[in-house]
Write the structure tokens for this entry.
Amino acid sequence: MNNAKQLFAGLILMALGLGTAQADYTLNLMKGVTKVSNDIYDLHMLILWICVVIGVGVFGAMFYSIYHHRKSKGHEAAQFHENTTVEIIWTVIPTLILVAMAIPATKTMLELNDVEKSDMTIQVTGRQWYWDYKYLDNDIHFESHLDEGSERVHRTVGADPRSVPHYLLNVDKPLVIPVKKKVRFVLTSTDVIHSWWVPDLGWKKDANPGFINEAWTSVDKAGTYRGQCTELCGRDHGFMPIVVIALEQPEYDAWVKKTLEQQKQKPDLSDQSREQLMAHGESVYLKNCVGCHQINGAGVPGLIPALTGSAIATGKWESLDGFLRAGTAKMPSFSKLDGKEYAELMTYVRNNLGNKVGDVLQPKQTALPDDDD
Amino acid sequence: MSAVVDEHDHHADDHHDHGPAKGLLRWITTTNHKDIGTLYLLFALTMFFVGGAMAMVIRAELFEPGLQFVDPAFFNSMTTMHALVMVFGAVMPAFVGLANWQIPLMIGAADMALPRMNNMSFWMLVAGVLLLASTLFMEGGAPNGGWTLYPPLVLQPITVGKALPFAIFSVHLLGISSIMGAINIIATIFNMRAPSMKMMDMPLFVWTWLITAFLLIAVMPVFAGAVTMLLTDKFFHTSFFNAAGGGDPVLYEHIFWFFGHPEVYIMILPTFGVASTIIPVFARKPLFGYASMVWATASIAFLSFIVWAHHMFTVGMPIAGELYFMYATMIIAVPTGVKVFNWTATMWKGAMTFETPMLFSIAFVVLFTMGGFTGLMMSIAPSDFQYHDTYFIVAHFHYTLVPASVFILMAAGYFWLPKWTGHMYNEKIGQLHFWLSVISVNILFFPQHFLGLAGMPRRIPDYAVQFADWNMISSIGGFIFGASQLLFLYIVIDTIRGGTGEKVTDEVWEDASKHGLEWTLPSPVPYHTWTTPPTSVPTEHVLDLH
């Protein structure tokens, strides 16, 4: 009997969730902000209610039987063991229900798959452990990392996740798109398989290394939409969120203009104090190095070398610089950093994480002529 | 000829009193199907607690947001190892153990067809699982790329340390062990049945295992091939799954799930067989729709080969592939529905009693159906673009594995232990175990549906704060469920050592001998049974000895 109570309690809870489905996170699937996500929500509700009805019927019959057809009540067992008519009925009816379900499902699937006639294209590249966005129409290109607040909290045992806004669902640079435009995404990866999912858009799509997937969205409503990587991609799989900001067209255009201008700016190579270098260096470290080498520089025994006491990290800075730019079989090249970031990062690594080299590296020392982007 | 037969019979009688060998060597060298069945079952029970302990680590870490106990990589090792241990160490061996014990008893065979191979397949299983477990202590830790072992992640030097080749060799051993077990079961069922038992007279448990054995033989080599390709990609510079060398990581997913989908049915089909055995006994009715049960099982097994890519709807398939795999997957609901309807009809107008095995079986029908519903929901490909790789799928497959396969294994334990040992288990503690399990398993897994729909991905060691409440509830359910299983351990030990002291009858359960040959044997079952085959066998509906 308790089974039934459990089940019905569960179903009622689920039903309660339906009424408040507009809220950001609820018991039920969110409707989302695109036509496709709404169609998917409708499919979800339709199949859910079909399951509820079948469940009530089958479990109802079962529990009626359990209550009435028990030996303790003196019920005599009937000895029937087949009935062709009912067996045909309960084969045919589910088949018809499935056919009826398949029609709207096929329609939505075709819609979801239709990437033709897009207004703009964004290339999404999954990396361990952040997303890289490239606007193919206007050359905007940036990385989107977990925000520093979440980064510090999740790496500190006992830190309070509620102390940072949108814990683990916040990034330093969100993806920005215009509303009511068909945005096509091409997704790939440079290392392992990732999967790009924003529930409000209604879909996720895998980012496979060496291959390109396509997907699209057209957001109806301006707003901020959050999601996460949904394919296990290593130790920091849980720490590479996605934030999409949908803007009205004029605001979007302004954002594009501003971002392009910022991208053109050369890095500021003026001298910094030791404290400034260390503070900036920590930010660069948290963004680029911490996933493998850990917050204390200890690495991971057997997998990832420690930076603390490392001969490369604490040797001549020129060789550390060369090492970072070249990368190795295990470590990607960090030539994407600019001269300023090199100075900050190397100063930090050589004078923190248990290292005390004592030198201060200035951007002018570490910058190469082609480091200007 | 008849003289030879006579002499043989005489010979057998001479040795009739010989019981098992004494001491530890009995268990190492035994070729007796009952001993090997016991070994499998005890090994599976041990692994159930090992895998369960890993689940406790997972639920403890997820009790609250933030990282409390374990490093993310170790967390990933735990999810990976929990799955591998539960699938290959607990559920599959437990069903092989039941097959070893029950199939010869049910079909009137003296033993399994290939007794020495039987022994070998058990000890190879132990070797495989120990090898896998040893990776926990290796530099870089146990495999942590998920039980699906997807490349390139699992080949990455920064992700998996020295464990990979050991894990792969372990998979090879487990595969060989399973294949040998399957060959043995097929050979036994085809060749050793009592002469008068036709295929359509066989108990459903025998049928479902026969079909499962074919699934095993078909797909374990595929899995072995896939992991061997991982091995050569890693150590011999091949590029099966490396795009830079002309390979494709998605190819691995296809091969893996071609194995993986039948694999999940390998864990559920024998479950169906046990449920179809237990429910009629306590409903005091013949199983409803015997023939349709057999055909439904065969259809499900066939369909399991042609639906694999529904595990990969979001991987980027052509639209034709998406639609085909959606339709094919939806069809599975039909034969599965037939089974659920048949079990319900078996209970209908019965004279039911609710001993522990029946309670677990009823819970199985209800909760497996819940897992079936979410399975149907996920077969709708566009919806799966939301559900995929979230806690919704975690809830789905745990409903089909824990309150389904595991509950039925518990039911089987309560159902047959009195037969095997000759002692009755403690019904009160059994019922306590049931109620604790059925309540806590729902507290554990039902909220995970909400988490998934609300957007929580699976395989993450830490989560956003809006997921905190349901995770805490789920963890509490998990701890209660885990602790409750110690009651089962107690009952198994207690029953073996004498149980309630009540001497059980040969048929143990009222009129059970109408339902299966094993209940016509003495309790406890003698070390050697059916040295001469039974003359009267159950028809497809009910055993009529008169």
